[in-house]
Protein 1
Amino acid sequence: MKKIICLLMTAALILSLAACSGNKNGNSASSIAVDDSSKTAAETTVTTNDGTKAVSKAELPKTEGVDVDLTKMSSTMVYSEVLNMQQHPDEYTDKIVRMKGPFNVTELNDNRYFACVIKDAAACCSTGIEFVWAGEHSYPEDYPEVNTEITVTGTFNVYSEGNSKYLQLKDAEVVF
């Protein structure tokens, strides 16, 4: 059942990305990259009407002790960074990530999965990253209500269940 839901969520994500990534004039493209020093850099390539290209790199804000701080980025940059995490998870493994968004919980096969939801600037496309709260916590008593704004800081991890890989922030600190 979890595999089917994962496949459906993946298909929905792909379709939503196709809908959100439309570039009507074809003049620009953006990508996010993580360099070897654990700092996050944004690289934007712009192609003008005459065919020339310009590349700009900007250091994204980094909070002390946090390798990737999504709370300091615009909603478009956050969504792009999370997409990059999904496409290149090995580049983020064991890095400290901080994110902010609505709290969500999913129950599948007698398991509960807690997530921080990330939306793009137009709020048409959303994805989430699961987190495992450090310490002993009981649901629902210790957790916020669904859709409550939370900030989660944890160690980025990839784990497998069956043939599928999942992203999570483990040993997470949760503030709401």
Protein 2
Amino acid sequence: MDRECVALCAADMGRHASEFVDGVAARGRLPLDYSAGSLRLVDRLIDGLRRGGAGREQVAGPLRGLGAYVGEVLVREAGAVWVDLPPGHMLRSVFAHPVGVRTPDGRVWNPLGRTVNRFEIGPGESLQTYFLTLHGWRPSRTLRGPVRRPGGAPGRGR
């Protein structure tokens, strides 16, 4: 096991999320119930961190907790599972974290990195929208429209 995995491993991410939720609950009554709707509150919490003027390093702990929480929402609501990314794996360098979540369709997502992006970039990186985008993604004929044959006649959809 590499040194980085001692602190951040797939098997421990649920615990990290739970500890974060317990800590937030001890300071105030926030409805962090692992629902997709609670991600709107996570967006607001990150907005508060941004308004506070702290740098990323100063809020690394809360961002990690929020990222673990976002990942747990994916686990509970979208049927995802936490996965360890082996050293040297391409996604590990792209994600900048040793863990991600794999959705039932086989795609691997980066809730920890997306949480950092939300902090650094702002509201355009909404975590609620992130969930809806990846969980609700389905190829749809209605989104692509009908296939057109040469001459403009509609054909059968793909």
Protein 3
Amino acid sequence: MKSPIAALLLFITILPLGPGPAAASAGRASNVFPGVLAGLVDQDGRGFDPGSVRGRLVLVNFIFTGCGSTCPTQTAHLVQLRRTLPAAVRDRLTILSISVDPANDTPATLRSYAKTMGIADRRWRLLTGSLPDILRVTRAFAAIRPDVTSQALHSSEVRLFDARGRMLQRYSGAPLAAAQLRADLMTLSGARA
């Protein structure tokens, strides 16, 4: 049986390149990524350039460094997944972990979190920004319900975007659907298991 991503890739290859009903049905985030991330900064204090992920596979998740449950567990699983991917797949993949707690998650805090979690990869960017920027991003990705006031109730989903910025899949992040995510990354990269 083919994976959902393999079936989706086959379907996408026959779609026209312009936006249309298929793009709209993939979810709101598919229509805003990566441009909505403009204005954010990474763990090194560098501004995020949305063009830096053009042509790359991208995983997006939402975290906050003060989390004592889902966020560090999901991050550890993503670290492990990334380490087990073949070099050819890792080279095509960028991970963007976006903080939902901009008041506390400064670039220095994110840099410390990255070190603690074993993230030593220039293709894994931990992003933060001003409160208005983070609210704009979380709304665009539907990462926090509008009626929720606690960042602890953010989405734990991991979203996969293809090299053209189209959202292909949402994965359970608690626990991380690592086997399916790995299989889909391998398929998208044309790598063999």
Protein 4
Amino acid sequence: MRKIQDTDKKPILLKVSLLQPTSVTTAIAPLQPQEEKIINERERLITQVERINQMAEELEAAILELKAIANTPNTQKRYPFLMKQLCKNICQYFAVSVPWVKRKSDESFILTTRKVDLFRAEREATLLAQQLRQQTKKRLASQRHRKNKNGAEAHTKHLFKKVLVNKS
């Protein structure tokens, strides 16, 4: 502190920092143009939409994994009370949905939900089994048809040979 005396000869105490200019160590950020700011906000919005949808996909996968684990025989062996009631499962399933963000044609967004299809794998497996059975039936039918056709031709040739042999 420095003493300053006024005209009455009384000392006045003032802080030196008020009297001396100080240097600025941080610069003021320049103003961003409004257009650039809007683009950055739009990018943040799109990034957040993608993040929400990615998390929804991960959540759906975790739910389906829970169902798979609950339906394995090893899990049910650990719960002998369920063996008494074979129709009862260790886990019950109700309609399930996850949050989902949809993009509209006008580039706006809708926060909604998307249904998780818990039984899609079973339906697909059933459909595949039916297709394989049909293919097998067709293959067997064509093999039988070829056998019958070849057998009939062989039988006809055999009869024809007998007729030729008997005539000679």
